[in-house]
Specification:
With about 675 residues, the protein is of the alpha/beta class. It has three domains: about 170 residues; about 290 residues, Vaccinia Virus protein VP39 (Rossmann fold, 3-Layer(aba) Sandwich); about 100 residues, no CATH class. Strands 3-2-1-4-5-7-6-8-11 form a nine-stranded mixed beta sheet, sandwiched between helices. Strands 12, 15, 16 and 17 form a four-stranded antiparallel beta sheet that branches. It has a two-stranded antiparallel ribbon with strand order 9-10. Keywords: Methyltransferase, Restriction system, S-adenosyl-L-methionine, Transferase.
């Protein structure tokens, strides 16, 4: 096994070969992941194993400084004092269960906490009873996962490939995907490149946070990038939060393996949306790949409670629809940017297209975009190629945000079209068929940093993404005619049917009497309508009302308002030649079916736009000025949308008729040739 893919495939084959028939496929991950972590940890500890055991013997009965002394011997932030490892456990097959449990218990407390998240103990008895524990340990003992053989980055790939396969086998939500390392690399370049001078200073101390850290890839790549390419003396403190216990455990174990127990302790469990584990902290840099299109109903109560705090909480700008929580993560990150007077903060987040355009003016999504852009937080958006992620082939976008824009970027947003920046993979991984090369990452970073317009880059003023949605109304024009068909339709109206339904609780005799009276009234109304002149078409509603009221009065009938409305409804139809309907105060009524909306760019006057774009085509229309924006009080609701494809759209002329005709003739010839062969 010469590369991480071979090792990932081998570990996956262990699940399929050893656990099949005895464990449901949905449970494979519960066993394979902790065994992979344990094997990784023991490979790291192997060179100092004997020294740790010896030191532990020396320290028996001495509690003081025992932890730090054993860590010094192991040269790690963790240790294991057992005489066993996976290979030695095989020497005593009869007692393998007891010895394996003792071996796990001999790890340091921080590792035991990690292993406990997998709940492996619930499977040990079952594995042992089915003679699988020995076989499983035997298989894993032959996988070399030492950092000299498998780097931290490669180990991250192994975990993510295993998780991808487990999720795929269970048909889990495609939004539950993991971030390819080249996407992380691009995000890291875009996040840190502008700050090279700041980070090159003597021993800079900076904080990095990921609110949906998964296996910790974004955090570890960030630290490696800054130390390897900017300043080896930079002191980056890593923080994160992860809702999934397994990926949380993997993230902590990988940070322990990097030799920094402080960073491992800064990774917290539980949902960021409902339970912020770093509530008082702000950060210099933040990265995230929140789940695409994941429902946040489980966090609803806490999220809404937080939203009520306004901008003293995390969700003051608004709440998106419950089917997608990406913009909640983004608001969390913005709330955690270090204040400008403390150096400011920068954010890189990758999301699908939904946060760009979902939601009309006044919706939660639009209001969040509005707040972000009007606050001038949005620096750039980079559109990525499709088929980059393991479990989904959709397009995605990297947003770069900051509260300390360069002067040249103030009031502006850069859009970068990186959809063509990819190379085809030799072998696909699930839905991942494309990857971004290191050269392409460098070029995209250069495009962003140069802040110039070209075929891949556009620069727009903030207000170009905003619009004012105005309501256009037209007058209601109805004509009325009593017809047999309309009378039949009236019988189906709820208000008319309710005439013969008892409205109060009474004894059966009184109830029957009331319902009988109702039926007589129904029959009388129908008789009055049937007696009206069916040839007359009334072009004026008030005129029809007078005739109807007179007919009812002559018959000695009095009907309630809902019934009269039902009669007007079934006897009317829209008629452009009819008179305009007005209310009791003489105000023109609008036709709800003809109501329309216009999105006017914020840079334009709505009345000038209306006179130019609407009035010539609908002379009787008007702007409904009663519908105003809640924030600025002006007519129309303000909305923001970033229609990325619109800005980079290239017109493709249709094919010529001659070209299409030639193709049809060619296909006809091929079909005739095929039919000739078939007849032979």
């Amino acid at each position: 096994m010469n590369n991480f893919q071979d090792k990932a495939n081998f570990i996956w084959s262990v699940a399929d070969e050893v656990l099949r028939d005895d464990l449901k496929s949905g449970k494979y991950r519960d066993v394979i992941l902790p065994f992979t972590v344990i094997r990784r940890l023991e490979c790291v500890l192997e060179p100092t194993k004997e020294k740790v055991i010896q030191k532990n013997e020396e320290l028996k009965g001495k509690v003081k400084d025992r932890e730090s002394a054993l860590c010094r011997e192991s040269k790690q932030r963790f240790y294991n004092t057992s005489e066993y490892d996976m290979k030695k456990l095989l020497d005593d097959s009869k007692n393998i269960k007891k010895n394996f449990l003792a071996y796990i218990d001999a790890f340091s407390e921080n590792v035991k906490e990690i292993i406990s998240k997998f709940k492996i103990e619930t499977y040990i008895d079952q594995l042992d009873e089915n003679n699988l524990l020995y076989l499983l340990i035997s298989k894993f003992s032959n996988v070399d996962l030492h950092p000299d053989e498998v780097s931290n980055i490669q180990m991250g790939y192994i975990f993510e490939e295993l998780l991808r396969k487990f999720n795929e086998s269970m048909n889990e939500n495609p939004g539950e995907h993991f971030t390819p390392r080249e996407v992380i690399a691009l995000m890291v370049h875009l996040l840190f490149y502008q700050d090279k001078d700041i980070l090159s200073q003597s021993h800079p101390v900076r904080t990095v946070y990921d609110p949906a850290c998964g296996t910790g890839g974004m955090l570890t790549v960030s630290k490696d990038y800054v130390r390897d390419f900017i300043n080896p003396d930079a002191d980056l403190h890593l923080y994160g939060q992860e809702v999934n216990p397994e990926t949380y455990a993997i993230a902590k174990s990988e940070l322990l393996l990097k030799g920094d127990g402080r960073d491992a302790e800064n990774i917290k469990e539980k949902s960021t949306l409902s339970s912020d584990a770093h509530p008082t902290m702000t950060f210099h840099y933040q990265l995230a790949n929140p789940p695409f299109g994941k429902d946040w109903s489980k966090d609803k109560e806490k999220v809404e409670e937080e939203a009520k705090k306004g901008f003293s909480g995390r969700f003051g700008a608004g709440l998106p629809r419950k089917s997608d929580g990406q913009l909640l993560f983004l608001q969390t990150m913005i709330s955690k940017m270090r204040a400008p007077e403390e150096g400011g903060g920068r954010v890189a987040i990758v999301m699908n297209g939904s946060p760009l355009f979902t939601g009309d003016a006044g919706s939660g999504e639009s209001e969040i975009r509005r707040w972000i852009i009007e606050k001038d937080y949005l620096e750039a958006i980079v559109a990525l190629p499709d088929q980059l992620f393991y479990n989904t082939g959709i397009f995605s976008y990297v947003w770069i945000l900051t509260n300390r824009k360069e002067e040249r970027r103030e009031g502006k947003v850069q859009l970068i079209n990186g959809t063509t920046f990819f190379v085809n993979m030799r072998k696909s991984l699930g839905n991942k068929r494309h990857e971004i090369s290191s050269e392409q990452i460098e070029y995209l970073t250069l495009i962003h940093n140069s802040f110039n317009e070209n075929e891949h880059s556009q620069i727009h003023n903030n207000n170009e993404f905003g619009y004012r949605k105005i309501t256009i109304d037209r007058p209601l024009k109805l004509s009325f005619q009593v017809t047999d068909n309309c009378i039949e339709m009236l019988k189906e109206q709820t208000a008319f049917q309710n005439i013969s339904v008892s409205k109060k609780r009474k004894n059966n005799e009184e109830k029957e009497k009331e319902e009988a009276e109702g039926r007589r009234l129904q029959e009388s109304v129908l008789k009055v309508l049937s007696g009206m002149d069916k040839t007359i078409v009334y072009k004026n509603r008030d005129e029809f009302a007078k005739v109807l009221n007179k007919s009812l009065k002559n018959a000695g009938l009095s009907i309630e308002s809902p019934v009269k409305k039902a009669i007007f409804s079934v006897m009317s139809e829209r008629d452009e030649t009819a008179d305009i309907c007005k209310d009791s105060k003489g105000n023109v009524e609008y036709d709800s079916d003809l109501r329309d909306y216009e999105n006017v760019p914020l840079s334009e006057d709505i009345h000038e736009y209306f006179e130019r774009e609407v009035k010539p085509y609908a002379p009787d229309s008007w702007i409904n000025e009663s519908i105003t924006d809640e924030k600025d009080g002006k007519v129309g609701k303000v909305g923001y949308i970033i229609n990325f494809n619109q800005y980079f759209y290239e017109y493709q002329p249709p094919r010529s008729l001659k070209e299409i005709e030639n193709d049809i003739n060619s296909l006809e010839s091929e079909i005739l040739d095929m039919l000739g062969v078939m007849r032979q």
